[in-house]
C-alpha cells in the first residue's frame, strides 16, 4: 500500500541549518545520507557530540511533511524543502503520528526506521523570526508538542528521489509514541 510520496530530497556536507535540494540522495544502511554532515554510526549533531560522542546516531535522516511547509506558508512564513534541515520532504504521510519503530520504504528499496521527533532549537528563529513558535507549542494539558519533523536510521540503503512512493509499515503493538531524540 502506498501511503505517500517523496516531494524533495536534500543534503549538506557541512553543519549548516538548511540543506541543498538535490535530484536524488543515496541512503547508506546504518549510516544515513551519503555526503551529509550527519552521516555516521555515532552522533553527529554538534550538541550531542559535545555531551557524549559515543552515543548511537538515532538522527541519521530528518524527514518533514510538506504539509508543514503549507501550514507555515499560511501563517506567513515562506519555507522551502530543505530549509529546515530535512533530508527528505514527504507528502501524504502523518509522520508525527507514527510510532517508534515504524518503517518507511522509500522508492521500494531504501528503508528508514523512525526513532523519534526532531527537537527544534533557537536556530529556527535565526532563520525566520517567530518560526519556533509555529513548530513547538503546548497542548491543552501543557505538554510540549514538537512539529518540526521526525528522525530515523537507515535500515536498508538505496537511492531516494522526488516522486518516489512511500510505504509505511507499523511495528507490532503495543506502539510507543514518538518522543524527542
UniProtKB/TrEMBL annotation:
<dbReference type="GO" id="GO:0003824">
    <property type="term" value="F:catalytic activity"/>
</dbReference>
<dbReference type="InterPro" id="IPR052716">
    <property type="entry name" value="MOSC_domain"/>
</dbReference>
<dbReference type="GO" id="GO:0030151">
    <property type="term" value="F:molybdenum ion binding"/>
</dbReference>
<dbReference type="InterPro" id="IPR011037">
    <property type="entry name" value="Pyrv_Knase-like_insert_dom_sf"/>
</dbReference>
<dbReference type="InterPro" id="IPR005302">
    <property type="entry name" value="MoCF_Sase_C"/>
</dbReference>
<dbReference type="GO" id="GO:0030170">
    <property type="term" value="F:pyridoxal phosphate binding"/>
</dbReference>
<feature type="domain" description="MOSC">
    <location>
        <begin position="20"/>
        <end position="169"/>
    </location>
</feature>
<protein>
    <recommendedName>
        <fullName>MOSC domain-containing protein</fullName>
    </recommendedName>
</protein>
<dbReference type="Pfam" id="PF03473">
    <property type="entry name" value="MOSC"/>
</dbReference>
Amino acid at each position: 500500500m502506498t501511503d505517500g510520496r517523496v516531494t524533495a530530497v536534500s543534503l549538506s556536507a557541512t553543519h549548516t541549518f538548511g540543506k541543498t535540494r538535490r535530484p536524488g540522495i543515496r541512503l547508506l544502511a546504518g549510516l544515513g545520507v551519503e555526503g551529509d554532515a550527519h552521516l555516521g554510526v555515532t552522533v553527529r549533531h554538534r550538541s550531542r557530540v559535545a555531551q557524549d560522542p559515543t552515543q548511537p546516531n538515532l538522527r541519521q535522516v530528518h524527514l518533514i511533511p510538506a504539509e508543514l511547509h503549507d501550514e507555515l506558508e499560511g501563517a506567513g512564513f515562506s519555507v522551502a524543502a530543505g530549509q529546515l534541515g530535512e533530508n527528505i520532504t514527504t507528502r501524504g504521510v502523518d509522520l508525527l503520528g507514527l510510532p517508534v519503530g515504524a518503517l518507511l520504504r522509500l522508492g521500494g528499496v531504501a528503508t528508514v526506521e523512525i526513532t523519534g521527533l526532531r527537537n527544534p532549537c533557537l536556530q529556527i528563529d535565526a532563520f525566520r523570526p517567530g518560526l519556533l513558535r509555529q513548530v513547538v507549542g503546548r497542548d491543552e494539558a501543557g505538554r510540549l508538542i514538537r512539529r518540526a519533523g521526525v528522525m530515523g536510521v537507515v535500515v536498508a540503503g538505496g537511492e531516494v528521489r522526488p516522486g518516489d512512493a512511500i510505504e509505511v509499515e507499523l511495528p507490532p503493538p503495543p506502539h510507543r509514541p514518538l518522543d524527542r531524540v
